[in-house]
Each structure stands twice: as structure tokens, then as C-alpha cells.
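Session log. Operator J.P. requested a structure for one protein chain; no other inputs attached. Running the standard single-chain path with C-alpha cell output.
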Amino acid sequence: MPVAIEAARAEAAKALEELRTTTPPTPPSLDKIIAEIPSDVGGSGGTMLLSKDIPSSGRFAANFAFVAQVGNGYLAEYVQVAVRLCVSYSGDLAHLSSVGVRDLACPPGLPDPGNSVPVSREIKLHD
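Structure written below.
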């Protein structure tokens, strides 16, 4: 499970860096970056945009759920464990370098990964 936990946290950190370096710092460019964040987590999970609020000026917010999975096997990898990390990013559109991230309670009813392995644990950014 530590591998899955680190994969989810690494993807959340990567998204934070992408948000902090969005250029130009405008609502349309930020919206584009937020739309591109959902992706595979190292080929073994996924990212879901939960919500976003991008005003024309002031503070924005974007909430995500990152799922990471680990498997075991030799030639045919099969998933044994899946974890989910929910986070909220927020910051001032005029100062994207100050974007921060915090843990977010995962909303009920989020889907499990598409490979029939249920999420076994919801994790936080830090233990």
C-alpha cells in the first residue's frame, strides 16, 4: 500500500506545481490546466475533477480525487490495493505562485476504479 499512497501524493504534488506555474495567470489558462489534470496516475489509477470555481478575478478553487493502485504478479500485473486522496487547491488568480493545497473529505458515492478493485483506503496528504 505504501507505493499506492506515494503515487497518489506525487500526482497531487505534480498538479500543485502545474497550477502554480500556469502562464499567463488568467481564468482561461487556469481553466485549461485544471481540465488537463485528470489523467492516469502512473498508468495505475486515475484523477477526477470534483468541482471548480474560477471567477474572473480573486480567489479560485479546484477539488480533485486521485486514485492510485498497486498490483502484484510477474508478467500479468493484477491490482490488489487502491487508495484515494481528495484535495482542494486554492489561490489568488493574480498570484498563482502562492496556490496552496489541503486535504478534502472525499464526497460519498465516488466510483471505484474501473477494474473492479474497490478503494480500500482514503488517505491524506500527510500521515
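Operator note: The chain has two helices and five strands.
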